[in-house]
Amino acid sequence: MELAYKELKIKSKILERDIDLKIFGKYGFTMLGFPAMSDDFDEKVDLGFVESVQNYIVNGLFRVVFLPTVGNRIWKNADIDWNERSDLHRKYNGFLMDEVFPRLFRIAGSPSPIITFGCGDAGFFAANTYFRHPDILYGTIAIDGYYNLRYLCGFDAWDENCYFNSPMDFLPNLEEQYWLIHLRGKKQVHLIATDRENNVLSIQENKILSNILTQKGIPHNFEIVPPMDSDTVPNWHRIFQNIVSKYF
Fold this sequence. Notes:
alpha/beta; 20% strand; 248 residues; eight-stranded mixed beta sheet; 8 strands; Rossmann fold
């Protein structure tokens, strides 16, 4: 059976730009991926995630949708100052809530589950998006991610929006039962770090985040795994495939 593919353009009023979604598959729930190496979908890099789980897509378990980030991962955009980056991520969050999630539900025909995934910098976007919206989303697969916003942005200036886009900051203080009930009721939260010497920071951040989730009674799967490939991107493809095959 042939893998279905289409592109969907969202004319975002919030971001004031056109955003292209890459959609693989027709049926099932949605795996919402953030591009691994840059803002936009890169066929040489990101298509490997699709190919690694192609059988699941073709058989209708889920569709994979790639959603761009913007402005050099927002927080790494040295051309704008920190408060402009903060405002851009505020708009990006509104874009997700008001223009992306409703569109994905219409594509699925119902409010079916959405699970985010990403690797490296994209692991931050995947996890942060889920932890901010557990009442809408059903989980996340974050591989070699970072969850302290300061690592991504490289500055110490801070506002409330920065705080709420930094899981290492806002999750320890989360006490509202509405959010905790949703977080505690989901079972597809996967934090994965590759056991490599040059990946020490991500390993540390994943350990800290896992401890935070445990203290909050939030179910999750945390793994430090040996490299499954000598190159970073193929390694991410194989880890993603392994998580899908084990848990979905």
